[in-house]
Amino acid sequence: MLLDIDTLPLVDMAFMNEVHQEDVHLINRLFETLLAYESEPTEKNALAVDSSLEKWYTHTVSHFEGEEVKMRESGFPPYAMHKGEHDRVLGEISSLMEQWKGTREPKPLKIYLIEVLPHWLVTHIETMDTVTARFLKRSISPSNI
User: Fold this and answer.
1) Within the chain, where are the H helices?
2) Nearest to 19 by CA among 105, 138, 132, 116
3) How many domains does the chain have?
4) Looking at the predicted structure, is the pLDDT value of residue 142 above 80?
5) Those residues with Cβ within 8 angstroms of residue 42's Cβ, 6 or more apart along the chain or in another chain
6) Is the pLDDT score of 122 beyond 90?
7) Taking the model in full, what pTM does it have?
8) Cα dihedral sign for 124, 29, 58, 88?
9) What CATH code is carried by the domain that includes residue 87?
C-alpha cells in the first residue's frame, strides 16, 4: 500500500472526501499492478498497469471536473488558480501515461507515485481543497451536493 486513507486530510465537503478516498484506492491499485509488472514484466501485467492507469486518469479527470463545476457555480474567486493546478497535474499524468505506453519502463511512473504524488495530493487537499471546501460549505446548500 502506497497511501493510507486513514491519514488523508479531510475537508468540509463530504463529496470531496469521498472522491479523495476513491483516488487513494485507485492509486494504491495502480502501484500494486506496477510492482507486479516490475517483478514479472509480462504482457498480462503490462496490460494490468495500462488498465489501472486509465482508470486512475479517468477518475482524476472526473474528480477535477466535479470540483470545478462546484467552484464555477459558487463563484469561487480563486477558481482559475485551482483549475490551473488541476490542469498541470493532468498534464503530468498524461505525459507519464504516454511514456509508460511507449517504453513499458516502470521507473518514471514508480518515482512519480512514490516521490511526487503523495506529497502533492496531501498538500493540495490541505491547501486548495480545504479553502475550496470551506467556501463551498458557506455557498452551497446541502441539497445541491
Assistant:
1) 14-39, 43-74, 79-103, 107-111, 117-124, 130-139
2) 132
3) 1
4) no
5) none
6) yes
7) 0.93
8) positive
9) 1.20.120.50
